[in-house]
Amino acid sequence: MMNIEEIGIHLKKHDIKPSYQRIKIFQYLLEHKNHPNVDTIYKALAPEIPTLSKTTVYNTLGLFIEKNIVKVLVIEENETRYDVDTGVHGHFKCEKCGKIEDLDINFGELNISQLSDYKIDERHLYFKGICKSCLNK
Predict the structure, then answer these.
(1) What SS3 class is residue 33?
(2) What is the reported pTM?
(3) How far lies 54's CA from each of 39, 50, 89, 104, 119, in Å?
(4) What is the mean pLDDT of residues 78-107?
């Protein structure tokens, strides 16, 4: 886990001016692997940063996406979530509690030979269902 100073260095390395708000938003993403939406981030940080606005959260996330340090996660049409893990992996969304979990998937083992003549720019693999916790309730 990165500390505040390391986050600042990481942002600078990606040509992002490390303002307090940007550092705190990135820190939230690192500490909460819950694939949050803008409202979740805003509600969590607003008590600590009274000058924070939803617009700032949107703009900061847009900058993070542009600089490839955060990915957009759209599993449902009306729901945009954010993922600080920019590596190739899959996701599982529980239709009961709404939790989204990361899945380690070896994309090299998937049979996608029918796409051999295509240029693939992005890969997304999502599963939906009921998570273990909800099934055990």
Answers:
(1) coil
(2) 0.86
(3) 7, 11, 28, 32, 36
(4) 90
